[in-house]
Amino acid sequence: MRVATLAHEIDFDGWRVAARALRLEGVEPAQASFRVGGSAEQGGLFDQAETLAPGTRASPAGPIEQNFTVSKTFVDLAQQVILHRSADRFDLMYRLLWRLRDEPDLMKVTSDIDVVDALDRAKNVSRASHKMKAFVRFREIEDADGPNAIAWFEPAHRVLEKTAPFFVRRFQNMRWSILTPDGSCSWDLKTLTFGPPATADQAPQEDEVEEFWKTYYASTFNPARLKTKTMQGEMPKRYWKNLPEAALIPEMIAAAKGRSETMVATPASAPNPRTERIVAQFDRETGPQDRLPVDLNELAAGVQGCRRCPLWRDATQGVCGQGPRNARLMIVGEQPGDQEDLAGKPFVGPAGRVLDDALIEAGIERSDVYVTNAVKHFKHEPQGKRRLHKTPNAGEVTACRWWLTSERDLIRPRAVLMLGATASLAVLDRKVAVTRERGQALALDDGSAGLITVHPSYLLRLPDPVLRAQQREAFVADLRRVRTLL
After folding, report:
1. 453 within a domain of the structure (yes/no)
2. Where is the Uracil-DNA glycosylase-like domain (predicted)?
């Protein structure tokens, strides 16, 4: 048995060096073991083993090459898994490393038992990091240098070093320390440092802000929307003892039913007169829009003057659909992008080019298709000189559905292809799980056929070229399928 001794529980660099040496020597997973710490008598990196010359195996199978590389995907996964508290995490990653030489695409086999195990542990580590961001509660003390915020936290996995940079970004102008059973970290406004493990009694138990926080938390509690299992799933009980607001939860749960009944029995308050005046003015500015436009030109003019939702304020212009009046196929996207907003035409940006190429491959002429969007104005947020896309919310989709319905009434297509969840919500008036309903022929209320697929921008966002190629083939297959509905 070859035993590699690591410096500490999250010694990824030490594991990496040891695992690589063992793999190059040909030490099989059953004969390799990793442990943390150890006595000075162990005599180096490996127990019970002689040092082998380069280019030889520990097994009789003969020499192997000195160079052995693995994908970045594996390295990133190993860095996550090693933060897991399971005792066999090092052995699991070595088994994967052992197999990767002969199975270079192993990490893509998501049904493999070792890959599934590693991915599940990495997911648990990511979840523990997320919970740490959500449930760390600082309490302020005064020391020789002024205010200092200190928090005690018990993460499910060893994620302190992984998560600490988040708190640096979040609280750059505040001195703080986070104490955990695995270690501690401190920020002094300039440098992030890590220290030894701590105990709960080293952290302050309360501060003067705590009562204000409890009052705020209690005031945001809505008894009518209480879902205890969901709440405990998002805020597991293991974290409650370190959350000041957790002391209020049992009482609020117990009183929820009575408070809900009181809310239901209370008569509705009178409308605010000022709000009613604003709504009336809004309706006058919007103008009558209960009459179906006689043609697409009138519809386009109406969109330019639409004030049904606030999106018109930040957009360059409204972007109506484009295509022949008698198109048999209507394609509905989400909303105009940056280039569409400037050009006033749908699908002329990067996603539009992906759609054009896929239509050609599927045997569909773009000039025969009416292409439009669920929402007619570009929703975005500025970031420097760029305008970054923001997904329209349900209220904005509902406000704009009148224009989409008018387009469908004027075009009367035989089939409607919905690109993504927002387009599906606009056409079907219900939330849709795209992956579950994708490619299925649906009967729409106007007698036409509907089909759901992904938005072309989804293909652009996929970093893995192999997955991107697979998803593009599936997208083209959906276009061919919708062609059969015509």
Report:
1. yes
2. 320-480
Does some domain include residue 269? Answer: no
How many structural domains is the chain composed of? Answer: 4
- The answer to pTM > 0.70 is no
Residues with Cβ < 8 Å from 423, sequence gap 6 or more?
332, 333, 334, 373, 374, 455
Asked if residue 157 and residue 114 are part of one domain, the reply reads no
What CA–CA distance (Å, rounded) separates 331 from 340?
16
Token pair in block for residue 98? 């052992």
Region of poorest pLDDT, from 24-33, 277-286, 467-476:
277-286
Out of 158, 182, 202, a domain closes at 202
Estimate the crossing angle of helix 350-362 against helix 465-484, to 10 degrees: 60
pLDDT of residue 215: 77
Yes or no: say if 121 and 89 are a contact pair by the CB < 8 Å rule: yes
Asked whether residue 449 is domain-assigned, the answer is yes
Distance of alpha carbon 195 from alpha carbon 202, whole angstroms:
13
Structure tokens, 48 = 């019970």
Residues 146, 103 within the same domain: no
Angle between helix 113-135 and 160-170 (nearest 10): 40
Beta bridge partners of 261: none
CB 468, CB 455: distance < 8 Å:
no
Measure the N-to-C terminal CA separation of the chain; round to a whole number of Å.
Answer: 67
Query: CA-to-CA distance for 217 and 224, rounded, in angstroms?
Result: 16
For residues 298 and 395, membership in a common domain is answered with: yes
- 186 pLDDT higher than 80: yes
Q: What is the pLDDT of residues 247-295, one digit of tens each?
A: 777 877 787 778 777 877 787 777 667 666 655 554 544 444 556 677 8
Instruction: Look up residue 24 and give its amino acid.
Output: L
**Same domain? 63 vs 121:** yes
Do 335 and 471 lie in one domain? The reply is yes
- pLDDT tens digits, one per residue of 191-249: 999 999 999 889 888 776 777 777 777 777 777 777 777 777 777 777 777 777 777 77
Model pLDDT for residues 300-351, shown as the tens digit of each residue: 988 988 888 999 989 999 999 999 999 999 999 999 999 999 999 999 999 9
Domain residue limits at 418: 294-484
Which of 222, 192, 452, 220 minimizes the C-alpha distance to 331? Answer: 452
